[in-house]
Amino acid sequence: MWRKILWWWRRDREEQDLDEELRAHIAIEAHQRLEAGDNPEEAEFTARRAFGNRARIAEETRDVWRPVWLDQLRQDMRYALVTLTRNPGYAAGAIVSFGLGIGAATAVFSAVEGLVLNPYPYSGADRIVVMSQAEGAGPFRRTLLTSDEARLLTQAGSLDAVILWDENWMWTKNEGVPDMVYAGRLSGNVFQLLGVPPLVGRTFAGDSWTSTSDLAPVAVLSYRYWQTRYAGSANVIGRTVQVADRQHTIIGIMPERFRFLHADLYIPLSSDKDQRWTLLRLRPGVSIAAATAELRAFVQQFHSPEGRGGRGDVRVSLTTLRNDEAGNLHSLLGILLGAVTLLLVIGCANVSILLVGRGIHRRYELAVRLAVGASQARILRQLLTESLVVSMAGGVVGVAVAYTLLAVIIAWIPPGVIPRDMDIAIDVRVLVFASVVAVLAGLAAGLSPALALSRSRLSAGAGGRSEVSTRGTARTHRFLTLVQCAATVVLLAAAGAALRTLVALTTAPLGYDPRNVAVFGLTFQGPHDPQQTAGYSERIKSAALDVPGVESVALTGPAPTPPVEPRRSPIEIPGVSDGSEQVVIAEVSREYFSTIRVPIRAGRIWTDSEDRRRAHVGVINATMARGYWPDGNPIGQRVRLDVLRNNRNNGDGSMELSANDQWIEIVGVIGDVRNDGLRKPALPEVYVPYTLRALGAVLLLVRTSGAPGGIADELKRKVAEVNAEQPLMASSSLEERLSENGWARQRFAASLFSACAALALALAAVGIYSVVECAVSLRTREFALRISLGASNARILREIFTSAMMTIALGMGGGLSLVAILHRPIAAWTESSLWSPVSLTSSMIALAVVGCCAVLIPAWRAATMDPMRILRTGE
Amino acid sequence: MADKLDVLQGTLDLLILRTLQWGPQHGHGIGQAIRARSGDLLQVEHGSLYPALHRLRREGWIDSEWGVTENNQRAKFYRLTGAGKRQLVAEESKWKLIVKTMARVLRPQE
């Protein structure tokens, strides 16, 4: 087979060679005749005659070389290329239609591949699971474990390993300049579980989360941090990097693809009583269901009275890492895949329209070829080859489109939308996908026109403008237009739904005023004694207040609307809740509420002096007040917060505060702030003075009188006056953070769907235009005749316009029914229903307007032509 | 018709291979040699000769090379390959068997 194909490629040379060989034969014959005494001309002539038909002999010899179909394919391809280059407009239209469709499909497929099919570089990634739990009828939340609990959990037979981690901004020094570093503190078995070998050096290992002793101060760098901070220098191994208050020796560098937590560096996690994030790995062959049942018993045990106390009614759920992290993407990707499929259908319909339209002009040629003996199959194959050549070219364009599209999309993807350690790229599988799609699209688009055209009969086609052929074409065209319009309506409706969700999100009441608030990250250089920290923070706060334009300054642990799950703590309220329920907890300074303008509903905020002397007071939000004291007054009530139990620093392990320290008195109620993402209603929340807990990093919220952009430099100067060693991470404004964390995802989805819809609209417009153009060009003579006989231009225009708009209207009807059918099954995936009068009406109007324009241009041209010129010249 | 063609084809292959056993030869020369050796009884059609040559080359039994005749004319010379020599032996013994068998079948009864 290969040899044959090789022959085929070298064909030109071989053919020339054969020709020369046969000529040489004749020359030898002629020479011999000359020597035998013939005169030169005669010798030449007889030699030729004796040889026979050279072309036929060459042809018969060539047949020995290679299979006939390959040769015909070559012929067909050459012919297709010639016809394409002769009709550049048609070629461009078809290739662009294919290219956009295939490009969009390929881009989305590569996202699906990267995010769903093959997302992680970790070994045994399909056995790594995330554990969530729910108490009573409450919602599922990620399980947090202490070191002791993790150690207990490893005894579960279904588990291979349990890892713990913590991630935080931490203090560091970069070339003597204070800086911040995003550090993942990992239990010693994390690297072992993820199974990714380091690029350079080694990783730390061991069950370090079970030991309480001091850990070796080592650090493993991420590839990104190694590149940015150390410029990829080879001799970083063995150097030290300061993290918080300790020097850590760099022992290894992870490869680029390893982006666990997207941290800058990884340091060992010491064991203490704090709850940490966790991942579990199942033993091979253990089902999720079996593991869930076993782990439920363990988790129940953690909640037993001798543990943290509780009713013991705990449900456990395990999800694979892939489903957990990409789970929220599945719906988006699923719908997107549907959208690009529709786009591809529209693109194919466009090519079909163009093929049919062009076929009309070729009917005569095809009919003649059929009449002189070409088989229908041969013609069919040739026409299909043509559409395949176009679709292959479209595929190449499509991959280029996908490549640029992906680059743009990836640059646009807001942080937090894609799990941090996933990767999207165009690889071999994506390219295979693109080629398969291209071939299928070529066949789909080419088949019906080819079938129709290959049945051309000389009787029908030879006249060039037979009534029969026109009617068949018109029917095909009308059907294709219908399909395009229906698909476009669905895409417009999807874009409308996405946009409505976005509007709903951006206009959702936050419960606070995010405008004109700058946010800075502040890390403390360890060991934090809360008392000291309080004094220090007060100095920073007053320094910030000195900056011109600053109205108020507040400190807070979490952001008002945290980008990830809000931090929660079990709560005990005498007579109401026994400690099995959890509330959101926020450590803030008392100016927090006035700075972001949260209204006070009842009672008061704690005072300056209460802040400073670490009074055990707190403020709750309205949801909590309603939920726990539906009839009574929460003010003056005492609640116990579990999180306040562990009120000591990680490193020193000195003092354990008495149980009394966990109790706080509620002094006020404030309005609800969206604390569980922008979509969900506020969860019960308790605000306590930030001085009650030792925080390694806080946010500095600064309300300015104008836009908060300009104060960063001045603020840094002022803070440096307090402490030159204090790093300050200039972040953005509160509004920008919201937009990045909350709105960006939806804005991203909305722009993707809008782009799809706009593309669909454009493609459909081209399709409608081509259909009308083709119909008009077939009837030019008829129109000319009628105009010359007295028909008015308006009448002709009306006739073309009505028939085209009827088809578009029918297509819209089809689209509406499609939306009606689809909106229920995909309702679970979308936040706004497709079936909304507002967006459907505007979709209809958009399509109608675009359709109108696409129809009017060729219709106008037909109605205003010069009838005499047409009739005289015949064209 | 098809049967006859097959027999001819097989024979022609044998004739060509046999002719090339004496040394490389071009298409014209092969045709002439066959005619001469058969005492002008066998006329090889050019329309059969060249396809046959190219088929044999594809089978790898002969190889070709451009060269110059003694009259200083350019021509494509074919020569027997190792595989071709083995094929010739096989074809020859097959042919002898056919001839012997045919002769036995056609022998007049005693």
- Radius of gyration of chain A, taken over Cα atoms and rounded to an integer in Å: 37 Å
Order of helices and strands of chain B: HEHHEEH
Spatial ordering of strands, largest sheet of chain B: 1-3-2
Domains counted in the coordinates of chain A: how many? 5
Straight-line N-to-C gap of chain B: 34 Å
Q: Structural class of the secondary elements of chain A?
A: alpha+beta
Would you count the extended β strands of chain B for me? 3
Q: Ranges of chain A with pLDDT <50 over ≥5 residues?
A: 305-310, 461-468, 647-658
Main sheet attributes: strand count, strand direction, barrel closure of chain A: 11 strands, mixed
Low-confidence runs of chain B: 1-7
The largest contact between protein chains, plus residue counts on each side, is: A-B, 22 and 19 residues
Number of strands of chain A: 22
Keywords:
heterodimer, A: 875 residues, alpha+beta, 5 domains, six-stranded mixed β-barrel, 53% helix, elongated, B: 110 residues, Arc Repressor Mutant, subunit A, three-stranded antiparallel β-sheet, 4 helices, 63% helix, 15% strand
Task: Explain the layout of strands and helices.
The complex is a heterodimer of chains A (875) and B (110).
Chain A: H1 2-9, H2 11-35, H3 40-51, H4 54-65, H5 68-86, H6 88-117, E1 128-135, E2 141-142, H7 147-153, E3 159-174, E4 177-186, H8 190-194, E5 200-201, E6 218-221, H9 223-230, E7 240-243, E8 246-253, E9 265-268, E10 277-282, H10 288-302, E11 314-320, H11 321-371, H12 376-412, H13 428-454, H14 458-461, H15 467-506, E12 517-523, H16 530-545, E13 550-556, E14 568-573, E15 577-588, H17 592-595, E16 600-603, H18 608-612, E17 617-621, H19 622-628, E18 638-641, E19 663-670, E20 685-689, E21 697-704, H20 712-722, E22 728-733, H21 734-778, H22 780-788, H23 793-822, H24 837-863, H25 867-873
Parallel strand pairs in A: 4-9, 6-8, 15-20, 17-19
Antiparallel strand pairs in A: 1-2, 1-10, 1-11, 3-4, 3-10, 5-8, 6-9, 7-8, 12-21, 12-22, 13-21, 14-15, 14-18, 16-19, 17-20, 18-19
Helix pairs in contact in A: 2-3, 2-4, 5-12, 6-11, 6-12, 6-13, 6-21, 11-13, 11-15, 11-21, 12-13, 15-21, 15-23, 15-24, 16-20, 21-24, 22-25, 23-24
Chain B: H1 2-20, E1 25-26, H2 27-37, H3 46-59, E2 62-68, E3 74-80, H4 82-106
Antiparallel strand pairs in B: 1-3, 2-3
Helix pairs in contact in B: 1-3, 1-4
